[in-house]
Design brief:
The protein has helices at 25-46, 53-60, 64-70, 74-91, 103-119, 121-132, 138-148, 150-166, 174-194, 201-217. Helix 6 (121-132) runs antiparallel to helix 7. The protein has ten helices and no strands. It is an all-alpha fold and 227 residues long.
Amino acid sequence: MSTEPGVSAEPRAENDRPRSGRPTQTEAARLTDRIRRAAVEAFLERGYDGTSMEAVAQAAGVTKGTLYARYPDKRALFIAVSSWALTRLERAEPVLEPLPDDLAASLTLIARAIVARSLDPDLVRLSRMAIAEADRFPEFAASSRAVTWTPRIQMIIDLLRRHEREGSIAVKDVEIAAEQFFAMVGAMPAWLAAYGLHRAPEAEEAHIQHAVDLFLNGLLVRRDSVA
């Protein structure tokens, strides 16, 4: 995965700390972070079967004993670091709120954020791994959906409910409508990205505008039809 600003991707020796016995909390946190990064990179590059605990320990610059002290086996390591990686990506997501009062403008902003998220290289790699390991780790597939889909769908639900209360739209099922809008703007870009394919930015924007217009045509209350 990509390196965060100000954090070195180069592993340091496990004993690279002052000779004062046990590591400080800061040192322990850095060590855990280094192990997580090394493990995620290994799983992404080699897959679950191709990754060994020994290889992760070596990449992280720690002993196998240190690694096993934190994670009893490879399965526990995979579940822990994959969940951490997804959560870290979620924390890095820009906050869109407060959204504009105009519904079309709000949907456009959300749609652009969904597409950008779908094309994020780290998320694409994690999504590929989630698909590849879905049968073996259904909990990883579920957490991947919860982190990458659920927050954005909930944002759409909240937006639609607000405008429904204001009387500008009529929605038979808000939750279904929100999920369908998410799929309209994000499903194809994510599918293409999984195969290393990308639309040109202007083409992607045209698809977003078409999706917003099409979606709104099914929701807006037409005053001339109201008795």
